[in-house]
Amino acid sequence: MDYYCYFKDDYLLEKDVYIHPLSPSTQYGLNVFEGIGVYFDFETGCYNILEFEKHISRFFESSKRLNLNHKYKISEIEKIIKSLIIKNNFKTDIYLKLVFLVSKKGSWADIYDADLLVCSWPKQRKSASQREKLNLHISSWERISEKSMPPSIKVGANYINSRYAFLEAKQNNFDLPLFLNKKGNISESSGACVILIKENKLFTPSSSSDILNSITRQMIFDFSSKILGYEVFEKEITVKELFRADEVFLCGTAIEISLVENINKISYNTEPNNNSQKIKNYFFEIVNNKTPYSNLYLKKIKF
């Protein structure tokens, strides 16, 4: 189905969006983007945008660091999203994709006023009871670093690194890869952050581990410590520490929370009552507006 999107100050069907085939965004991946989850409340008819302000702030920071200039404010982005929801008449959970790109012909070397593209489409609702059990593979591909292609910027070109590792994992019959950084320590998966649990404590690679500072990861650490009472730590994590963990899960906007069963055939606890599942359960209580603390993380839109 062809959905409406926002592009260059207009609302168009996806098929009517035109980007020059020799734009620097199509040639060189010169773009920055954000993916945002929107959860529909079937009881109230309200759309709940997860960590809206944090996502847009990172979006703006990424464009600034890449010298993609733009004219937008957070309040204007919110209005665009509201209009898209109305035009597409969504009555379900939604995935939003926001992109600053260059639609005209050009070079990677120039500085541009970026065009804003906002797309949205319905996404299948997951539940806390879904039992994904991922098998991961430590990739032979090294994670990009702050001194080469900064992973702290959410730029399209960075994801070619993830593509190499993802294809390698699939070719070896694993679900997803797990990157090591240049120090040989744990970094992240392709498009998802990793969290370890050892003796009821949560550990995740620090920002010095060449990760994208995941907003979902920040949220999980926040409610796990303040509401669920877990101790949480950000640190450089070695492969040995990874293999000695009790539980492992991945998190991110698209993957939400998914438990890991094996990494390089090392097994982890995926029982229904484990700590990872408790955290996953609470995540879905938040996004489905089933707890008083949901207001800390959701921007509610109702028409």
**How much of the sequence is in beta strands?**
25-35%
What is the domain total for the residues? 2
Major sheet characteristics: 9 strands, mixed
> Percent of residues in helical segments?
25-40%
What is the mean pLDDT? 96
Rg over C-alpha atoms, rounded to the nearest angstrom? 20 Å
Structure description:
This protein has seven helices and 18 strands. With 303 residues, it is α+β, with helices and mostly antiparallel strands. Strands 9, 10, 11, 12, 13, 14, 15, 16 and 17 form a nine-stranded mixed sheet that branches. A seven-stranded antiparallel sheet has the order 2-1-8-6-3-4-18. It is globular, with a radius of gyration of 20 Å. The mean pLDDT is 96.
Short description:
With 303 residues, this protein is α+β, with helices and mostly antiparallel strands. It has helices spanning 24-28, 52-65, 74-88, 159-171, 215-226, 239-243, 275-287; strands spanning 4-7, 10-13, 31-41, 46-50, 68-69, 94-101, 112-113, 115-122, 133-142, 176-180, 186-189, 193-198, 201-205, 231-235, 247-252, 256-263, 266-267, 298-301. The two termini are 24 Å apart.
